[in-house]
Amino acid sequence: MPRTIGSTGETRGPGAKDPLDSQDTIPCPICAGRDTRLAYPLIECDLYECGECFHLFSKLKPGIEAESYGDDYYLDRHREYFENPDLALFERTLVRLEHHWKPQGNVVDVGCGNGNWLAVLRERGYHAYGVETSPAAAAAAKERGLQVACTTIDAYQPPVPMDGLISWYVVEHIEEIDAFIADSAKILPEGGVAAFATVDSGSTVYQLGKLLHRISMGHFRGPLQRICEIHHLQHFSRRSLDWTLRKNGFEVLERFSAPFPVSSVKASSVQRLLLRIAYGIAALYDSHFIQVVIARRTGS
Q: N or C: which end of the chain has fewer CB within 10 A?
């Protein structure tokens, strides 16, 4: 019988009931299973693990506010990423998508940020449209002459029928993940093809962070906290991402892994050196930090 977990993971005083013996479990947001446990107590959040679909998900600790997506998110904290888009990965993905998309078709980028993907799609002859909830990011994309609607995915009304969809580093931020994937599927016709990119909680970088946490008994938890980041709520394994897509209207066609560009990481020179070493190990096992999934909209 699986052990159960409390909802906060806090330390209790002598004689208090152990929260691990509580019957109040936190269901997995992916498979709704109750075989979940507090696996990695971190600095700003606790990382829970599902024993059924191997999904990891975060719960913020009391007093820690969820990250907002204002101007500073795009212009300061993650400026390196937005100023250094991974064009090689965009190209690698497009090579696969062009087998499914019609030339010069209509493609929507859900969570388009400042429009890096939209600009590439436009250059390749596609009619590109963006959906973005952040006014700051949407404004930056519009300044580049890109067509962006500043709204949520459930409220988005496509101006034209869409042939394809991109969702790049978005699903890890979404709490109501089933609704987000289902709403994304509704934008496409049956047979329409999408690409989803997110982190891989089974990747070499993640595994190293988990290992350091375990062997130090939680004292060396900074690396795993940095990998997870406060604004990541869902930490998908390959299995849990496939599970989520399948139950919400997609059929997985193929996937591949890719490293997150070191140049896009806000880190010291030593940290970047360590990342390059980890990336070298990951290349041997096709276990890079990023997983990209190509999926087809089903009729369900």
A: N
Which CATH number fits the domain that encloses residue 122? 3.40.50.150
Domain that holds residue 29: 19-65+203-224
Alpha-helical runs (H) found in the chain:
71-72, 79-83, 87-97, 116-123, 135-142, 177-187, 204-215, 222-228, 238-247, 269-285
Do residues 229 and 78 touch, judged by C-beta distance below 8 A?
Answer: no
**Segment 95-154, tens digit of pLDDT:** 999 999 999 999 999 999 999 999 999 999 999 999 999 898 899 999 999 999 999 999
C-alpha 71: how far from its chain's center? 20
Could you report the per-residue pLDDT of 189-204, keeping only the tens digit for each? 999 999 999 999 988 8
The answer to whether residues 175 and 287 belong to one domain is: yes
Q: Is residue 229 domain-resident?
A: no
> 76: which DSSP letter?
I
Chain position carrying tokens 């700051």? 136
**Per-residue tokens: 92:** 């690698």
Measured CA to CA, the distance from residue 123 to residue 127 in angstroms comes to: 10
Q: Model pTM?
A: 0.83
Structure tokens at 88: 């090689």
Q: Highest mean pLDDT range out of 24-33, 190-199, 271-280?
A: 190-199
Question: Total domain count for the chain?
Answer: 2
Instruction: Say whether both 119 and 163 belong to one domain.
Output: yes
**Residue (of 172, 135, 181, 182) closest to 260 by Cα position:** 172
